[in-house]
Specification:
Blueprint (H helix, E strand, L loop, with lengths): L1 H11 L2 H11 L8 H18 L6 E5 L7 H8 L2 E6 L2 H10 L9 E5 L2 H4 L9 E6 L5 H9 L2 E11 L11 H7 L1 E9 L1 E8 L13 H4 L4
Parallel strand pairs: 1-2, 1-4, 2-3, 4-5
Antiparallel strand pairs: 5-7, 6-7
Helix pairs in contact: 3-4
Amino acid sequence: MWWSLRHNCSVTNNWLPRALEESRARGFLGPGAIELQITHSEGFALCWEGHSPTPPESFLDLGSGGGLPGLVLLERWGCRGVFVDSMEKRTKFLREVLEWAGAPSGGEVITGRAEELSRDPEFEASFDLVTARSFGPPAVVAECAVRFLKVGGVLVVSEPPDDTDRSRWNHKALTKLGLHDDGRIRHGAAYRVLVKLRPTPKGFPREVGTPGKKPLF
C-alpha cells in the first residue's frame, strides 16, 4: 500500500517533473526525455524493493548532480534521503528545489567529498541504501560508497547496457571492502546490486582523490 499511496499523490503533484526540467535547463541533466529519466531512476527503487518489502529508513545518493535518482526516490518513498555532491552549484540547486511547494520532506543536501563525509559520525554506517548513477568507475564507486552503508545495506549502481561485459567488478577487491556482488539486474536499464556483509576496514575509503588515482581494480 505504501507505494500506491505515494504514487497517487505524485499523479497530482507536478513538483518532480518541474524540478527535473529546471535541472536540465541549468545543464545538470542530459537532453533525454524527463519521463525516461524518471523511469531509469525508478529502476534503482525496484532493485531495492527486490531486496526488501519495505522502503529503506534512509538512503544516500552519491554524486547527486542534477538530482537523479535521488529526487525520484525521495518522492517515491518519503523517507530520509541525503544528497551528496562536491559541486556547490549543484547542491545549491538541490536545496532550492527541495524547498519548492509540493516537495517531499526528508531531503538533506551535503556539499563535500565522499571520502571525507563517509567518516563523519553522522553519516558513517548510517544508510540502508546508497545509489550511484554516474559517480565514476566501479572501483571508485565501491570504495567511496561502502563506509556510508550499514552492515546489511545495499549499494545500487547504474550499469552500461552491454550484458556481455563481465570485467567491470572484481570480486576479490569487493570482498576486501566488505561487499558481496549480488549481480547485474535489469529493470529495463541495467543495475549492479552489492550488499555490505561486514564493517568497513578502517583504511577505506582512502584519502580524497586516491580512489580515482589508484583504483583497487
